[in-house]
Write the structure tokens for this entry.
Amino acid sequence: MKKLVIRLVVLLALLSTLNVATVANGEERTFNIQTIIDPGMPGLDTVCADAPFVPSAHFGAQAWTYKTRKSDGLIVEDPIRKIGIVRDCIQITDSGFSPFSIHPFYIRFDLGDEIYAGTGQCTIISNNVPVMALILASCTASLIDTTTGEAVGNAVSNTTYNPFGLPGYDTGAYWTLRLYSDKPITSEHYSLEGDSAETTTTVAEHAGNQ
């Protein structure tokens, strides 16, 4: 029993040394944003140079707020207000985008005075819904605050990818960012002014203790 306890202590000590990034402690905040592709987005090569793999493609997008109906969460208006830009780089591992194929990606969110970046993977959900060759995917990434290097949370997407330019469909995503940080809220895009009684802005920022 004594040997087992000693081994556990040693194992925990080793695991602690593997946690290179500092973990941020603080208030839980959740962002919901819509991203819409912007083919003319600058700086993609610079962002992709930080990816830990050789990208096959890169994308730039504008980040927007949107509104949902309070009664059931249905999106009733989008986009509303631009709050930043998002740039990501992906390594396409399956050109047929087979369901459940996995593709590494790197992403950077520039949201006013807050900048987050991280690496993760995109999982293809479908390549034929609602039409053939339209790609539905979900992407997940762990995030760091680029100004402090702290690990602050994660990002998850519901993504539509239109690689073949099918009419009537855009490339874009709805992202949820779950962050833990003590960073003060100073950006003007956090304001909830103008929300109507019928809808609520589902982005700006909602603190975990509200």
